[in-house]
Amino acid sequence: MKIKVELVFNLFYDKFMTDSVIIDLLVLSLLLAVNFRLFFMTRGQQDVAVLLAPVALGICIVGLFAWDFSLPKAVILVLAFVVFIENSYSLWRFCNKLYVDYFSPLLWLVSIVNILVILGVGALVVLLRPLPVASDVAVNQRRVTLSGSVRSGLAPREGFFETADVMLVQYKPASDAAPWSERGARIENPTEFQGATPVLPLVLWVTDGRTFIEREEPVAATLASLGYEVVVADFNQKIIASSRMRWKGLFSPEEIAGQEATLQRESSFQYEALIDYFGGERGLSSRKVFLLGDGYTGEGAKAASLLHPFVAGFYSINGEDSLGNHSVIPGWSNGYGPLGETAPWVNYLINKTTLLESRDESRFHSIAAAYQTHKIFSSIFAAKEDL
Predict the structure, then answer these.
(1) Inter-axis angle of helices 297-307 and 260-277, nearest 10
(2) CA distance 304 to 233
(3) Quick one: angle between helices 344-351 and 239-251, nearest 10?
(4) Per-residue pLDDT tens for 124-161?
(5) What ranges make up the beta strands (E) of 214-310?
(6) Exposure of 368 by Cβ count < 10 A (0-12 exposed, 13-18 middle, 19+ buried)?
(7) How is 72-87 classified by DSSP, letter by letter?
(8) What 3-state class would DSSP assign to 235?
(9) In the chain, which stretches have pLDDT less than 50?
(10) Are 181 and 156 in contact (CB under 8 A)?
(11) How far is CA 367 from the centre of its chain?
């Protein structure tokens, strides 16, 4: 077993492949086996290999609950569904305990086409794979699912049937042993937390609707390793609405531009809800609190910071900060995060680069964004101390 685990590690993780990519390649391998079986099956055998078709489709569907819906995932899902439908008659024969007589010429043709398509999709999955967080970034993370809204307030999700309205991921240095920031923890349990008040500066970050937490993770993790507790919140948990938003961002950016004022206002409400979740002024007044944004949420961070004197300041990546500066990160796509690391295929579509140019193996953008954020937040707090 140890040899197998090390083999998987060397083949996949040492090649910078994430769990999501491994699942995609697993599904494609199963689909490949379904189509290749025609070359090995002989008359009089039971077509057991056809069972891999529904297995692949099932893994694909379950994977959508673990990772956000994206164009590569949609392509693989459609491919798995097509292979399942094409082999439905073979599945029916297997369920009725019928043996292989022959495979029709049409099934031979579609299987050969499928093999070529699957190999092509597999090559693109490997070529355009997202990079995981760098191994030298030592952070801990915790994922929390919240229910509620910006109007009714947010609370941890309780029970399977309660809606998951907000995904929240917290990052902090692996060396920090202080308790995680909780919803109004020091207000609700002042005695318990009196001697264990978190001392790390707290960064609250609401994601732009055109991206999601996983695509901002390299920046958040790198920033946390510099001595922050970083909280990234994704308020776009409705799969159809969020998918439409990302589709518009890619193929109808003028629609996003027309809705920009509304989206900025909504994001300011989301920052307000996030601040309230962590206790508001009463719960956060003893901490250094910064608001971080990307894309249209930068304006939301700015608006929310102006309403709360206890918030030290804000910064919009590749944009404005509360000191009046305007920083530039070359090649940064506002609202999408470090695309060259997390979604090269989006980088390819937006910036019209070649497939090879769309990748960023150097991790330049996540490192630049994290260190620029750290520099600005340090300057903001130093300026407040001088007042």
Answers:
(1) 50
(2) 15
(3) 40
(4) 888 888 888 888 888 999 999 899 888 888 888 887 77
(5) 229-234, 289-293
(6) buried
(7) HHHHHHHHHHHHHHHT
(8) coil
(9) 1-16, 190-195, 387
(10) no
(11) 18
